[in-house]
Amino acid sequence: MGLISCNKILTVGVQRFDEDHHQLVAIINQLHKAFKSGEGMHSIQLALQQLDSYTCYHFHAEEELLAQHDYPLLEEHQKAHQDILSRFAELQAEFHASPAAMQQNLMQFLLDWLISHTKTVDQKYGLFLNSRGIY
Ligand SMILES: [Fe+2]
Ligand SMILES: [Fe+2]
Does the reported pTM lie above 0.85? Predict the structure, then answer.
């Protein structure tokens, strides 16, 4: 079993984004497995790259749909995404400088942002999009 299960992530009620969040959980679990199994830097690097690109894809997809529907909290949401991406980039750099010391911090950050952003910031657009007939 992975580090976190999908049911820890509240559904936002929009199918394509619920699927994205599940995919993010799967990649974070894969990274956790790479850390724990001693598969080496290659597997860790691969999982980090996947997480990087999937996160960018997902944030962009949310922002695009929300912009199309004139979501009133779009700017705030974009700012939250930007903050996550910059912190993730900083932590990756710190991780590469000292992998053993930073492993725990990196995992903790990933779990915190995924769970708290999805449960709070994303949750708000779920209700908004549902009210526009998007599920
Ligand atoms: Fe999201
Ligand atoms: Fe988001």
Answer: yes
